[in-house]
Amino acid sequence: MKVLLVADELWTRNEAIAALSEPDTVIREVTDPRDASREADRFEPDVAIVDMQIASMGGMAVARALREAEFAEDIPATSIVLLLDRTADEFLARRAAADAWVVKPFTPQQLRAIIASAGTGPTGGRSE
To answer: Residues 52, 82: contact at Cβ < 8 Å?
Structure first.
């Protein structure tokens, strides 16, 4: 599995990497949200994990930019998982066309399960 991890906070990236570290998983980190679409084009990830609170752009804008690039066929179809700060942000995840989301802090099991559900398309999946 190829994972594009879009987060600027080191602890968020470390938690996701620890949860997903397996021999068949390749993780590419992006700390500047403006680089997410370009890196998705180069890397062709199966899933993009996007932190909701990232730099000046925000996770919702990153997710929407990825969806627009996908629609324009600039990048391949990619499942998008948003890392939310609070349960109340679920409506933002839906508006961003995320396939799934999880509220931080998350356990490794929660993140792996939500990524598995994201692979089946828009699920409105969540984990708290």
So the answer is: yes
Q: CA torsion sign, 72 to 76 to 79 to 81?
A: negative
**pTM for the full predicted model:** 0.90
Is 125 among the domain residues? no
Six-digit token string for 5:
């991890």
- Tell me: the pLDDT tens digits for 5-29? 999 999 999 999 999 999 999 999 9
- Is residue 106 in a domain? yes
Total domains, the chain: 1
Residue 50: strand pairing partners: 6, 82
CATH code assigned at 43: 3.40.50.2300
**Segments forming the whole domain that contains residue 33:** 2-118
